[in-house]
Amino acid sequence: MLGHRLDQLIGNTPLARIQRLDPTGAARGNVILGKLEGNNPAGSVKDRAAHSMISRAMERGEIKPGDRLVEATSGNTGIALAMVAATLGLRLTLIMPEHMSIERRQSMAAYGAELKLVSREEGMEGARDLAAAMAARGEGVVLDQFANPDNPRAHYLTTGPEIWSATEGRVTHFVSAMGTTGTIMGTSHYLKEQNPDVQIVGVQPGEGAQIPGIRRWPKEYLPSIFEPARVDRTLDIEQDEAEEMTRRLAREEGIMAGISSGGAMAAALKVSAEVENAVIVTIVCDRGDRYLSTGVFPAG
């Protein structure tokens, strides 16, 4: 058979070596590598979890072509689910806070997803509550990325092994933004199996910061897939730190990514300032073109 189905092209994303952002760390023998998840078909790391959750649910007979899925999302997971749903013949309703960027909403709609918006004040917690209510009324099947083990399993089976292989087992630190926490949970699980000394660093927003894709969850909404023991350390990143690093990534490294990637890279530099002869891998979660309307990349 010639070619591949689109969802079969997810993963095997490259590691880009950071060249200019960390000269003092480089002088101490540190290497920072960004895993370019924007190279996935729908443009983000969430392609992995979306495909895992949908394909495994179909394998188990829980959903079939023509069924409707309902999911709360802040953006990237929704885009990824919409792409996979389109590929596999499923219908999809996505619920998101109204203040998420217009590019993300347009991308979801382009794939054929139906959108429902909740207010900024209701936020992701309100979106999750509405998804659960719709499922209870029989209006669709909720995959629930926050509780679905097929989310971290995607990263245990793909992201972790790719990092281990690409670094030839030399990775010493893994730095990841924490949203649903699927990426950090699955990757940590795999890397710690290979070498328990690999340090896993989670990134969350400082108090009051609103960084798309990174969350500080209230206890009652903490994703049930999250296992605190799999994270060695958590770093808080402020809004201005994340946004400035996002701009620097584009200007100084040629990597145009989203704000959560800027937050993760800022954390990676904090780690680098404390160590030497380290191989630090961080997730560059998505592409920056879906954030143009936010003003993070000023035109003048």
Overview of the structural elements:
The mean pLDDT is 94. It is globular, with a radius of gyration of 18 Å. It is of the alpha/beta class. It has two domains: 168 residues, Rossmann fold; 98 residues, Rossmann fold. It has a six-stranded mixed beta sheet. It has a four-stranded parallel beta sheet with strand order 5-4-3-6, sandwiched between helices. The protein has nine helices and ten strands. The longest helix has 17 residues. Helices cover 38% and strands 17% of the residues.
In short:
GO terms for molecular function: cysteine synthase activity. With 300 residues, the protein is of the alpha/beta class. The protein has helices at residues 23-27, 46-59, 76-88, 102-110, 123-136, 150-166, 182-194, 239-253, 259-272, and strands at residues 15-17, 31-36, 68-72, 91-97, 114-118, 141-142, 173-177, 199-205, 233-237, 279-284.
